[in-house]
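W.,

You were right to be curious about this one. When I first looked at the sequence I had no strong expectations either way, so I just let the prediction run and decided to look at it fresh. Below is the sequence, 752 residues in total, followed by the output.
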Amino acid sequence: MPKKRSGGGLSPTQQAAKFLGVSVLAGAVLAGIALPAVGALGLAAKGSVESFDELPVSLKTPPLSQRTTILDADGGQIASVYSRDRTVVALKDISPYMQKAIVAIEDSRFYQHGAIDLKGVLRALNKNAQSGGVAQGASTLTQQYVKNVFVEEAGDDPTKVAEATQQTLGRKIKELKFAIQVEEELGKKKILENYLNITFFGEQAYGIEAASERYFSKPAKDLNLQESALLAGIVQSPSRYDPVNDEAEATKRRNIVLQRMAEVGDVSQAEADRAKAAPLGLKVSRPKNGCITAVQGAGFFCDYVREVFLTDPVFGKTRAERAKVWNQGGLTIHTTLAPQAQESLQASVKEHVNKSDDVATAATIVEPGTGKILAMGQSRPYGFGKNETQINLSVNQKMGGGAGYQPGSTFKPIVAAAALEGGMPATKSYPSPYEMEYPHPVSACDGKRWNESGVKLTNENESEVGPFSMKEATAKSVNTYFVQMISEIGICPVTEMAQRMGVQRADGKKMQQAPSIALGTQEMSPLTMANAYATFASRGMYCTPVAIESITQRVGDQTKSLRVPKSTCSRAMSEKTADTVNTLLRGVVEDGTGKQAGLDSRPSAGKTGTTDERYAAWFVGYTPNMAGAVWVGDPAHKRKMQQISIGGVWHDKVYGGEVPGPIWKDMMSGALQGKPAPDFSLVDIPDGDKGKDKGNGNGRDDGNNGGDGGFIGGLIGGDNGGGPFPTPSFSLPEGWIQGQGNGGGHGRGHGG
């Protein structure tokens, strides 16, 4: 007995046979319905049967692209991003009015015919013959679904989209064969469900759920009669019948749908008339897509999550593979972002730096021992307008950031860690005069030696005269002390320690083998510095930064978990070394250059930094359970922070302890509120010979003579305190320091 189908009509097998039996009719008629001539169609009518038989028998349906939702650590939504705004829903979650409306206007005999409606073909042919043009088409709803699958598979490739929609007999025949397969495999209800989920409804809305939310701000299951008729009418021409831009045309089209529903018996004429008289009732929700919509200033973190997805091999072997998964969407991404920390960061940034200021600030908070990024933000918002940017000032260049900024004296603790790890006692003292010639030669990696002479450097002011112990030199950020230290231990132990702490140049270039690194001339990002200092906080364990906790992906009606990159932790230094550095850096916030950044309610440690001629100022600090970095400067590296207003406060000169320090303090205070307040494991470091008062300890950093970023890290140029700007009184050999990349041969990096 022939197989019958639900809803009546011929079985797919019968329909196929009938189609093949009238191949000339199918070819010529279809050509006549929708096409101007058969000759240029790519398939002659007489070849229809052979071509039909040669087509593949299985339609490969790509997963429908859907929106991706990015969540914070507490499950709150940060942003919604999508290639196509679509939320797939089951037929039971679509209003019965909507189901009837789309069938009535697009294919009223949907439940009576098979994949191909021959009655409709003949009717359309007759109508078109009478009109002398193309007044009516004959594609069934199933055929339309197949065409939409081709379009979906084409993605955003305009060439493939054109191929998927081209009006050729060849495409029509291909469409017909797949329609037969779909009818046999899926059945009417599933085809209708798939059609309503794949179809474009205009206004960036793909699928009925997104369309219902866009036009009426409600789920598809709640659509009433007139709302359903409006949406069903849009499908034929989303631009022409767009109710947002042409209410009159959309109303006419809606009423045509309502009348058709009455004619086929879906509603009574009275119901249709009442619905026709009703206003459109739009309650439009504007498209909200992308990181620009992120809450609490988390647009840059959102963008960082996207970059992680597109660059990490865990999500695919190639960037193209990863991009395909990202664009397909349907992802729910749970991130590490802590709402409390993010809110506190943004509040502090807003309080201290205006988005219209000549300079900007960027800040990042991470969790020691896990690498979790807890907060990330900056004073210039994510966007395209004035005083806005899409450059993430907190991260490295390859992750959407700039070329970085010289960290100045915030690099000195890394030098100290390398020395301590190599066996240097914490009581080590150096003469540390106010002015000295740079020691030479200095050993570097691979047996090389740095050997230049005749270059002098100074401390912040003339009162800073040694000898200094490590404790006092760190608190007062004495340049000559740390230059003598790296000269003794060599460059290689410092660069190796930096590498173990995850410290790298923001532009991806190798750390240069020059003694100037002791004073912070290699451009770095706030995330790099925050995570490096987290190594001290976790007693010597470095953990790679991580932004994603877990990801699930919905494909059709199935949900699966994706692998995500995990933080890897390794020991960068001994606990004793880390504890010693923590003791040194506690002194910075207690009575050194970072006093204004010290937290009142819990133990904290940190370091200030100010670069050549005030192009950048830093504070990087931490508690045992949270580490953060704050940078302030001009991303374009043009505006010196002298004679400048920042956040409405005038500064003759900017210091790391006076501008970034208070930002850090307010940011961390709020982020840590209500959290445990563990203490550091400190060591006893005997005080050195105090001697006379060797520094002011007033937060006016850094002992850098402008130099944590001046030529070879402050050997010349700039000023970091009350004295005049020293000027070099000699000429420098060409390529003397092998260049400084973005830092420039004179250590004056553009910082962004």
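Here's what jumped out at me. The longest helix spans residues 169-186. And, maybe more interesting for your project: The longest strand covers residues 548-555.

Coffee later to discuss?

I.
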